[in-house]
Amino acid sequence: MVYAVIMAGGSGTRFWPFSTQSNPKQFHQLFGRGTMLQNTVERVSGIIPQQQVMVVTNECYKDIVAEQLPKALSKNIIGEPVAKNTAPCVAIAAALLEHQDPEAVMVVLPADHHITKPEEFCKILESAVITAKKGDDLVTIGIRPHFAETGFGYIEADLMGSANTADERGFQVTAFKEKPDQKTADFFLKQGNYFWNSGMFVWKTSQILQEIQGHLPAMYELLQRAKAEFGTKLEAAAINDFYMDCEAISIDYGIMEKAASVKVIPGDFGWNDVGSWLAVYELFEKDKDSNALEVLNYCLIDSNNNLIFSKSEKVIALVGVKNMAVVETEKALLVCDLHNAQGVKEVVEQLNASKELKSFT
User: How does pLDDT run across 9-36, given as a tens digit for each residue?
Assistant: First the structure.
């Protein structure tokens, strides 16, 4: 069967103060009717029912996940005792799924992406599943770039080696590229065979475990120790020990860049990784002065290209303000230049370093 593995362990520091350590952004409603996690699960529900969804999250968020996904099986909500990047997350999920179903195919998705064309996305996903089932390839979903973005990694593909059927549209990956400078990003865009790295993957559990054995042998050994306790009362403790002992490494660095056969299926389905308040501004509807207003009460004078985000009834007034994000919560107020919104992460780091201010994160 096909299973979804949702990575939902991030702390969402770039979305402070709306996103906090106790309740990060993936558990909030930003777009649509549900939270970002709920929307991610709903998006694939036509392919993967909620009972076949596994969520890997921080241990302290397990109750939130269970509340937001009432049809998810409790055994499929996995709590990480400590964040160790994406490779351990994928490894433990693959091992658990293989224990349940040796023929499992897993679709790995971040919990906090936004997609405006879900039907097109599901078509791409179905193609990726078919490709993964047919062979021993690791499959990644690439995004056709619309502009020369420097904030994403890129996937270089061999477009000459096209797939043979309409259902199988993968191209061989020749290289994964780091986030480029502007000149390199311009080159990637002109070439036409470079795609944004979405961080979404599809593969057979048996195949990804084989890749982990070959490229991350120490992690694989720890995984084997943990697997010996799966299905017993010691399973949770075994997973805890695995995380405490394994290295912190991303699936891209640990596996994807080293694997012998990786295919990319490119798509254009309104994808956004929602990586900052600037991304939120770009996704929200605007008024005639290009202000994005997620706020009940406001007054704007000679102000344009701003984001106001507040869930309270306070009136927020802007006078002569341009290109700013104003985010208000019960405990905090953020005002920043929209084009410096990535710096919000540094604010959280400084607050965490302060005994007096740490509680505000």
Answer: 988 899 999 999 999 999 999 988 899 9
Judge if 308 and 240 occupy the same domain.
Answer: no
Residues in the chain: 361
Instruction: State whether 125 and 222 are in the same domain.
Output: yes
The last residue of a domain, from among 218, 247, 272: 272
Domain final residue, candidates 220, 246, 272: 272
**Residue 162 structural domain:** 2-272
C-alpha torsion sign, points 119, 122, 127, 130: negative
Q: Which among 199, 160, 148 is positioned nearest to 176, based on CA atoms?
A: 199
In terms of pTM, does the model score above 0.85? yes
CATH number at residue 71: 3.90.550.10
**Nearest one of 27, 113, 36, 107 to 67, comparing CA atoms:** 27
Closest listed residue to residue 326, CA positions, set 292, 360, 356: 292
| Under 8 Å between Cβ of 316 and 333 | no
| Four-residue CA torsion sign, 186, 188, 194, 198 | negative
Separation of first and last alpha carbons in the chain: 40
Region 207-214 average pLDDT: 98
- What is the structure's pLDDT at 161? 63
Count of the separate structural domains present in the chain: 2
Pair (281, 240) in one structural domain: no
Is the same domain home to 209 and 326? no
Determine the Cα–Cα distance for residues 335 and 322; give it in Å rounded to an integer.
12
Q: How far apart are CA 22 and CA 16, in angstroms?
A: 11
Cα separation, 200 vs 139, whole angstroms = 9
What share of the chain has pLDDT > 90, as a percent?
A: 87
Question: What digits encode the pLDDT tens for the residues 287-310?
Answer: 999 999 999 999 999 999 999 999
pLDDT at 166: 44
Same domain, 204 and 261: yes
CA distance 339 to 3: 38
Distances 304 to 15, 38, 60, 321 between C-alpha atoms, Å: 21, 32, 40, 7
Which sign, positive or negative, has the C-alpha torsion 287, 289, 291, 294?
negative
Q: Are 240 and 147 in contact (CB under 8 A)?
A: no
